[in-house]
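pls ignore typos typing on phone
S-adenosylmethionine + seq
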Amino acid sequence: MLCPSQVAKLRPVPRPLLSAARRLYDDLRCSISSSSLAQVSPCVDEDCSDFLPWLERKAGVEISSFLSVGKSVYGRSLFASKAIRAGDSILKVPFNVEISPDDLLPEIRSLNIGNVAKLAAVVLKEQKMGQDSEWAPYIRSLPQPEEMHSTVFWSNEELEMIKESLVYQRTIDKKVGMEREFSVLRHALDHQFPEVSKYMNFEDFMHACALVESRAWESSKGYSLIPFADFLNHDGLAKAVLLRDEQKQFSEVIADRNYAPGEQVLISYGKFSNAILLLDFGFTLPHNIHDEISVTGEPDKQTTRKKAMGAYSNVRIQISVPLQDPLYKMKLYLLQRHCLQITCKFGFSKWSSDSFTIKEVRSVKGKGTGIPQSLRAAARVLSCTSLEELNDMEEEATQNDGRLGRRPLKNFNREIQAHQLLLSHITRLIDQYNASAKLMKPTGCPASKRDGIRRSMACELLAGELRNLKSAASWLVSYTTDR
Ligand SMILES: C[S@@+](CC[C@H](N)C(=O)[O-])C[C@H]1O[C@@H](n2cnc3c(N)ncnc32)[C@H](O)[C@@H]1O
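k done
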């Protein structure tokens, strides 16, 4: 949760999903202890019974009189140890017990690796120190790789389940990025601390990176791990978030509702789609109101967590200008200039930094707010059949706000064709998703608990994306037939 959001969540209206993926998810929920099911009564966590007293001694102040560490289906969790009322300050963790890249030697801190990798290097260092680490009780409490489900841990076979989603490609890219950062780190350690580098392997580094990504908060030092606060699990509907007071130097959580003793306390990590939750946190939500689909291209890999919330790509629709189109060059030029980053050779660039994000269109009669204007503009350009039409579009853009193709085409048939083009792409994607969902249908019990959990996550991811695609398709059907 690299960026704590202070924005309250909206309560989604639950709606039934009738897709194969949804049904499959429901089947699985019944048959396994799903990662997405809340548990109210706490399971005592013997391993962590001394954790809070230890941290309070280290901090020199009381951190919480309201919470205790326990276990739920989400892993370690915080539970109300007495009645909590909305507005209570339930924990305050001072900055002096945060772990940050400041704990690295300057030579490592200045390496050309990202903030996640830097903090992962601190975790690795503390892990290697074992009982001698001043953070030993905290390091011991962190989940082991086999308990984590971020997609970087998925096998090729498991990843095949989500190959329709851009999470698939993002996972591959992420692993490649981690390998690069690992080799930079290893190279530096080889020179300065050969005895440390000898014991470092990529699997440990990947585990440390996944820990950081799923539990560090953005801070003035880059990212920081905040022990105890990071036992709080996520609820997409919660309004409580982790607040940081840079002046008073502590992080705090204020309860957003009353809790009875024994209830699990949940906060919101931010407005994350299932794509982000799965890629970075290793879980999904059954009805995630923040699910969205991006069309063509991906966000800049360096996006901050906040930007990524809006721009993360889940699905890519590739609409290319056919090479045999007599207006190929002109269309490419217009799209490149106004709508997308395009590589001439391959049509729409695979790595275009622009992305069209489709959100659920709430009503078929709505204004198509879920379908981005830039995508509709691109479709309008693509459907033109004469240079004159393209010139007219460009002239209209110059006379208005400079943005191309934002108004319906004057030629009614052409306007319909443009939207039919989009509809055909989206329909093709829906077919691909449905085919994937069918393949995912279990033939019996999942081979293992892990297999069942990952299957249900794949189903939830695809079901959310499919829901958005279907709502976009319904809107397009209505636009092209009801006029
Ligand atoms: C900040 S940690 C929370 C503490 C964690 N449960 C532990 O065992 O240390 C975030 C991780 O908790 C789990 N988690 C949090 N919220 C969840 C939810 N709503 N459903 C399933 N897993 C969740 C995920 O494994 C996630 O990567």
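The longest helix spans residues 449-481. Confidence is low (pLDDT under 50) at residues 2-39, 295-314, 341-355. more later
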